[in-house]
Amino acid sequence: MAPNSLFAVLLRSPWWVSFLAAGAIALACGALLPSHVAPYAAVGVLPIFGVGCVAAWRQLRAPSATRMQAALDEAGALPWRALADRLESAWRAEGHTVHRLPAGPADFRIEREGRSALVSARRWKAGAHGVEPLRDLQAAMRAQDVASGVYIAPQGAVSDAARDFARDHALAIMDGPALATLLLKAPAAPAARR
């Protein structure tokens, strides 16, 4: 789906926007079309109504802003090994196969459904993120013949040049909300279950 298509925009919008749009279109059909045609034309709002249902389902299941901030705060306080364990656990919960990599620009290789990605996560506490670590990750991707990469940058500013480089080289930048959503998928640690 194109990122700026009507359905994509409605999926990202609050759920009630889709229902409001569907209602407005149905009312316009009833007011502007002959009475014998209006009900059939109003059926055209069913896809928009369906998108509203999907958006409502996703938004009701999404973690609250408080939970996401708590997950980010916890991640910021973790040492590298503990964060790496949480990331690995979260990716496994999503169905990925996870391989930790020795020292280098990439920390993980994740695989799912025949697709692989290299992940660079060690700079998760950096205050600024420039192009250089992304160049290193892209070079590692070429060396390992991997088509995509993920750079984890939950805090600090990512420069415009870094964002442009990422866009041009099949790199995804995982920001704070995306990282929090991922970490919340990880099973609770044994100490936290008590």
UniProtKB/TrEMBL annotation:
The chain crosses the membrane at residues 15-33, 40-57. Residues 78-183 form the Restriction endonuclease type IV Mrr domain. Signal peptide: none annotated. One of its GO terms (molecular function) is DNA binding. The keyword Transmembrane applies. GO terms for biological process: DNA restriction-modification system. The keyword Transmembrane applies. Keywords: Membrane, Transmembrane, Transmembrane helix. This is Restriction system protein. It comes from Paracidovorax konjaci.
